[in-house]
Amino acid sequence: MPALCRDCGAEPGEVPACPDCRGRRIIRHPELFALHIAHIDCDAFFASVEKRDRPELAARPVIVGGGVRGVVTAACYVARIHGVRSAMPMFKALAACPDAVVIRPDLAKYAAVGRQIRSMMERLTPLVQPLSIDEAALDLAGTEALHGAPPAAVLARFARDVEREVGVTVSVGLAGNRLLAKIAAGRDKPRGFCVIGAEAAALLAPEPVRLLPGIGPALARKLAGLGITRLAHLQALDDRTARARLGDDGPPLVRRARGEDCRRVDPIRETKSISAETTFEADICERAALERQLWRMAEKLAGRLRGEDFAAGGVVLKLKTASFVQRTRSRQFAAPTRLPDLLFEAARAMLIREADGTAFRLIGIGAQPLLPGHLADQPDLADPSAPRRVAAQAAIDALRARFGVRAVRRGRGL
Fold it and tell me: Where is average pLDDT lowest: 165-169, 223-227, 330-334?
């Protein structure tokens, strides 16, 4: 059976340890050197970056998140052993793991590391489809001549390179399609490398339906009400029965349960939205205090728009009351922008109408629709001050890039 040593790239055959490096991380699969669709997922990415930058935390449980009223953004594997998971309320996470080190998220740093890893992916193949800041799908078909090795060997070498050059680890899934590659990437974390081939349907059959990407709690409850709790139950349905019981989405769901997926790896992916929000340590009802928080979010949103080279065609204000009732308001711009002042003023006008004494626990601001960055803040004869605002923001950005984000601060942010 084809075999590959993940530690040195040798092909050790049937022996339990690699004769070249004595490593035991050996992958064996009948289709190991024939498959070319991969899914790469960084392991506990935010927490791993923080541990990389603070080596003294290597053995400690680390939670990336904010405040006792916030939620867990990421948790390292040590914290996960204690039951901490992403999106868990912070107070529950700290109750489960009171010794955890809590670190506020640094999204700019994580984005920079994500871009570095993505650049390394793009050296392997032009067919890289980013799926989030820390994961992507890749198609390495036809790259063997370029790299002098089959995709499996190239991916194992990539994982070693990321660990050595970037200081974080990744897990790799290799399969015949995107769905199976994603499932494979999650089966052996951290530092995993899993291969799924022709055995896919039999491998998936005993698994719970929630394993399938796209089946959330609501759909799982609906399926359970129909007696469908395992993927084998879906696999057994023919198209007619699936459509009768599950509607038009039934037959595609059955095909996915069997491990079938015809999606291609598409390197062009539309970014749906960019936003920034914060949950307060204590509820806020005063308009002035809400405006200060809104300004901070407007600056974050503007930075993210510039970082991803987008402009905002409009702005969305998001508020959540102390009783968890969400309010969403939106407003369109006459001309696209990514200046924090304009984002703030548009959102502030909506906030004034909502700040009626209600206590809020969260405020957020988003850009919608997203437009190409080159359309942002173009010269306007009706607004002769526009070029000065753009130049001032560019100067602020340059100073912050050189001396840190706190080097220049606006008065309304203090």
Answer: 330-334
Check: CB of residue 131 under 8 Å from CB of residue 137. yes
User: Above 60 in pLDDT, residue 414?
Assistant: no
The Cα 408–Cα 376 span in angstroms is 23
Mean pLDDT of 44-49: 96
CB contact burial 249-288 (16+ within 10 A = b; e otherwise): ebbebbbbbbbebeeebebeeeeeebbbbbbbeeebeebe
The mean pLDDT value for 318-322 works out to 93
Say what the pLDDT of residue 373 is. 80
Residue 245 to residue 227: CA distance in whole angstroms = 11
β-bridge partners, 326: 320
Q: In which order are the strands placed within the sheet that holds 72-75?
A: 72-75, 62-65, 101-103
Q: Which amino acid is at 112?
A: A
Catalytic residue (one of 14, 50, 56, 135): 135
Any residues with CB less than 8 A from the CB of 313 and at least 6 apart, and which?
A: 332, 333, 336, 367, 368, 369, 370, 371
The pLDDT assigned to 116 comes to: 96
Element (DSSP H or E) covering residue 379: none
Active site residue 163: no
Q: How far apart are the first and last CA of the chain?
A: 65
> 27 to each of 18, 39, 77, 122, 259, how far by Cα in Å?
11, 16, 23, 24, 21
Nearest CA to 304 out of 342, 346, 275, 268 is that of 275
Q: Identify the pLDDT of residue 249.
A: 86
Which DSSP string corresponds to 251-312? HHHHHHHTT---PPP-S------EEEEEEEEEEE--HHHHHHHHHHHHHHHHHHHHHTTEEE
CA atoms of 335 and 1, how far apart (whole Å) = 61
For the stretch 214-242, pLDDT in tens is 888 878 888 999 999 999 999 999 999 99
Domains along the sequence of the chain with CATH? 31-198 (3.30.70.270), 205-257 (1.10.150.20), 274-413 (3.30.1490.100)
Q: What are phi and psi of 160, to 5 degrees?
A: -65, -40
Element housing 158 (H / E): helix 151-165
The whole-chain average pLDDT of the chain stands at 90
**Which is nearest to 86 in space by CA: 95, 75, 78, 102?**
75
Using DSSP's 3-state secondary structure scheme, residue 203 falls into helix
